[in-house]
Structure formats: C-alpha cells, structure tokens
Amino acid sequence: MLTGKQKRFLRAKAHHLSPIFQVGKGGVNDNMLTQIEDTLERRELMKVSILQNCEEDRYDVANSLARGTGAELVQVIGHTIVLYKESREHKQINLPR
Fold first, then answer.
1. What CATH code would you report for 4-84?
2. How does 57-69 read in b/e, with b if 16+ C-beta sit within 10 Å?
3. H-type helices in 1-97, by residue range?
C-alpha cells in the first residue's frame, strides 16, 4: 500500500504525462491488462483515459485495472486513472518513505 505522501509524490510526477491507453465501450479485457502490465514494467507510472462511451463506472474500471495488473491505484481524476507499479528490472522512481 502507498502512503499519502507517496501518492502525492506520484500524482506530481504523473501530472505532465499523457494517457497511453483508453478504455472504451468494450471495457477492460485480458489483452488490455497484459499490455498495461508490460507498459508499467517499463515505465512504472502511467495514465489511462476512460472514453465517454465506456459503460462501466470509472471507479470500477480503475479498480479492475489495478487488480488485473497488480498495480497501485494512485488517483482517479475526471476520466483519467493514474496507476503505479514498481518495476523489477527498470526501476526509475524512488518513492519517499
């Protein structure tokens, strides 16, 4: 689990990022989860955008993505989700204690 201080730190780091993936009408699927997990391994921190035609609740989508990829849900703001997962091989972000 991330502390409040760590979440603030990650939100600040994610501020300038653009969403890489989009969740649309089809919702969350296994292929998407695999791609997001691979991207998190390389980047550690990323944004996912929820399109207007997505029929699921944005918090349900966020929780599905976090659970399915083993990532931490940093933030849901508007239609954007911020995810973090510590990389095993490409560690770039050192979280504050």
1. 3.30.110.60
2. ebeebbebbbebb
3. 4-14, 30-43, 58-69
d(CA 20, CA 48): 6
What is the structure's pLDDT at 1? 86
Q: Hey, where are the domains in the chain?
A: 4-84
Contact 41, 88 (CB under 8 A): yes
3-class SS of residue 78 = coil
Report which of 82, 86, 62 is spatially closest to residue 7, judged by C-alpha positions.
82
What is the distance between the alpha carbons of residues 40 and 69, in angstroms, rounded to a whole number? Answer: 9
Please, which residues bridge with residue 82 across strands? 47, 75
Closest to 83 in 3D by CA, of 95, 96, 71? 71
pLDDT digits (tens, 9 = 90+) for 43-97: 999 999 999 999 999 999 999 999 999 999 999 999 999 999 999 988 999 999 8
| Residue 81, strand partner residues | 48, 76
β-sheet bridge partners, residue 59: none
